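2024-03-11 09:14:02 INFO receiving multi-entity request
2024-03-11 09:14:02 INFO entity count = two
2024-03-11 09:14:03 INFO echoing inputs for audit
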Amino acid sequence: MKAIALISGGIDSPVATALALEGGAEVVCAHFSNAPYSSEKTEEKVFEILKHLAGKYKRKIKLYVVPHGANLTEISRKCERKFTCVLCRRMMLRISSRIAEKEKADALLTGESLGQVASQTLSNIAAEFSASELPILRPLLGMDKLEIERLAKGFGTFTASTKPAGCCEITPERPATKAGRGQIEEEEKKLDIEKMAQESMSNARIAEIAGK
Amino acid sequence: MERLCRGRTGYEFIPKRRNALDLGALAGRLEACNIAVEANTPHLLIVKVNGTGVSVFASGKLIVKDIESKEGAEKIAMQLIRIIAGRGA
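2024-03-11 09:21:47 INFO inference complete, emitting structure
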């Protein structure tokens, strides 16, 4: 199986990626850079984590760094604020599906875990499904944070994941917790989704990361 | 009130009273004071003050980013607060 792993530089997505590598899957990673709404240090963390995993699993890991800040600006200007996180994630899944098509991958892989943050609810996750035609693997969905942290320490990603790197500042104070698919699709009509996805893909940088 | 931000990479300055700033208009005033506006949304501006990134929220909250010196962060925040309050740069 080949999967596109969405990797943020936090604790969870590197664990999801490591679980897939541990299980023998072929993994290509996609990092969505939220700059200028988050620090560029996040990207440095992603490189450090993948360098470690490439060394641990003795393989090169391909990484797409996708600029996502302009997409967030569009969403923030045109859509209802409380839906920002769901719209942001749908956009990431949509672009990752295009990467999957290019890479001939079978699935997407994310580090979402249910209820961990206000926007990671079952309703919101359900509202995200239709953005991808591929299956979305969420190996951490039912795990609690302590279990994920224990795994991160075991895989050796915890230290890099917990380095200071700022937060995503465009996140609304009160994100929607029950986004309906209909509401989300109405919000997306305010955006030029095709243009946003195409520009993100054409501005993505690709790196091959070798182990330490 | 000031404190280290949640991501531990900068300092937050939170006004005593919550504001509802017109960030579009504020962006124009900041640019007139030679402060570069990197991102302009109804909820948040990202600006550069002498090379240091600052997030300006509609509530009046400021985050001075990637700076170790608390005094340096305060100086930048005060410069912005003066512009927000309409007291020039």
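2024-03-11 09:21:48 INFO post-check: The longest helix of chain A spans residues 84-103.
2024-03-11 09:21:48 INFO post-check: Chain A has a mean pLDDT of 93.
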